[in-house]
UniProtKB/TrEMBL annotation:
The keyword ATP-binding does not apply. SUPFAM superfamilies: beta-beta-alpha zinc fingers. Keywords: Metal-binding, Nucleotidyltransferase, Transferase, Zinc, Zinc-finger. InterPro entries: RegFact_GeneExpr_CellDeath (IPR052797), Znf_C2H2_sf (IPR036236), Znf_C2H2_type (IPR013087). The gene is ISPD_1. This is D-ribitol-5-phosphate cytidylyltransferase. Residues 6-34, 39-63 form the C2H2-type domain. One of its GO terms (molecular function) is zinc ion binding. Pfam families: zf-C2H2 (PF00096), zf-C2H2_4 (PF13894). Coiled coil: none annotated. It comes from Caerostris extrusa (Bark spider). The keyword Transferase applies.
């Protein structure tokens, strides 16, 4: 298996993006991906986090958004959009 690939736990398929794996799991195996926590990335990339710190890191690394506030909370993509416009 090449590095950086995410294997499907239900079959032998691998994906380079978790997002695509999650979509595959839902459509092919009819299962929801296991959630790490209940904090969702507001950018609909299917990632979940157990702490705001992790979400913050993820937003910085993947989406290039830097949160000033350590515990900035986003209930959904709309609240994120509001924050985005403000900054
Ligand atoms: Zn599969
Ligand atoms: Zn994300």
């Amino acid at each position: 298996m090449a590095e950086g690939l995410v294997p499907c736990p239900h079959c032998s398929k691998t994906y380079t993006m978790k997002k695509n794996l999650y979509q595959h799991m839902r459509t092919v195996h009819n299962v929801s991906p296991q959630l790490k926590g209940n904090i969702r990335c507001p950018l609909q990339c299917e990632e979940n986090f157990s702490s705001h710190k992790e979400l913050r890191k993820h937003l910085e690394n993947l989406h290039k958004y830097v949160l000033e506030n350590e515990i900035q909370e986003f209930e959904n993509s709309e609240t994120f959009d509001v924050w985005k416009k403000k900054s």
